[in-house]
């Protein structure tokens, strides 16, 4: 789960069941992530920080995305229908929106698997740059940009990126 450009909740753990396909593994992971994100959204709502009712799910597994967006349970998914049905329900009621994302753009893979050096460096740079930009944006929005001091702070922060 990302907030302001940085990961705030993530986990990597052994699955409780053995998945028989990558699509099943992705469905199970998506359901667990949505449970965690729903709880986090409740916390943000209590703090007055929740601005969206829809979760954006970035999925690199086309089969997972297609079965979750359809309304039927396919033959290959008949041994995990409850998790798949949960994903289909939350998609149908508009709580989640799937986005097909390239495997090369899944920056949180840095936390879940061993990566070659160049990919590791790329993901680290992406994470730190996104986080820096988010901090700059929050600082600028909280400072008065109309004042000379606010403009000076903005210039210093932009120069440090």
UniProtKB/TrEMBL annotation:
UniProt biased composition (Basic and acidic residues): 148-161
CDD domains per UniProt: RNase_HI_RT_Ty1 (cd09272)
Domain of life: Eukaryota
Annotated spans, Disordered: 141-161
Name of the protein in question: Reverse transcriptase Ty1/copia-type domain-containing protein
Organism: Octactis speculum
Lineage: Eukaryota, Sar, Stramenopiles, Ochrophyta, Dictyochophyceae
């Amino acid at each position: 789960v990302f907030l302001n450009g940085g990961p705030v909740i993530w986990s990597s753990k052994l699955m409780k069941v053995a998945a028989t396909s990558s699509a099943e593994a992705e469905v199970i992971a998506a359901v667990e992530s949505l449970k965690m994100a729903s709880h986090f959204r409740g916390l943000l709502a209590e703090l007055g920080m929740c601005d969206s009712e829809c979760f954006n799910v970035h999925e690199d597994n086309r089969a997972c995305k297609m079965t979750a967006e359809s309304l039927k349970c396919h033959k290959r998914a008949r041994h995990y229908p409850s998790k798949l049905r949960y994903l289909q329900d939350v998609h149908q009621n508009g709580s989640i929106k799937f986005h097909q994302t390239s495997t090369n753009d899944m920056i949180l893979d840095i936390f879940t698997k061993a990566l070659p050096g160049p990919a590791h460096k790329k993901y680290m740079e992406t994470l730190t740059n996104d986080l820096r930009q988010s901090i700059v944006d929050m600082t600028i929005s909280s400072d008065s940009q109309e004042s000379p001091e606010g403009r000076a702070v903005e210039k210093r922060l932009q120069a440090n990126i």
